[in-house]
Amino acid sequence: MSSDAVSDSRADENEQEVQGGGNETLSKRQRKKLLKQQQWEEQRDLRKQKRKERKQQRKLEKQAQAEDRTDCPDRKRFRKEAEPSPLRLVIDCSFDNLMMLKDVKKLHKQIQRCYAENRRAAHPVQFYITSHGGQLKQNMDEINKGWVNWKDVHIKSEHFHEVLSKEDLVYLTSDSPNILQELDEAKAYVIGGLVDHNHHKGISFKRAKELGIAHAQLPLGSFVKMNSRKVLAVNHVFEIMLAYLEKRDWQEAFFTVLPQRKGAIPVGQENKQEQDEDEDEEDSDTCEPGTQNNEDTKDQRNGKQEEHETQQNQSDSCERTAV
Ligand SMILES: C[S@@+](CC[C@H](N)C(=O)[O-])C[C@H]1O[C@@H](n2cnc3c(N)ncnc32)[C@H](O)[C@@H]1O
Question: Global pTM?
Answer without folding.
Answer: 0.65
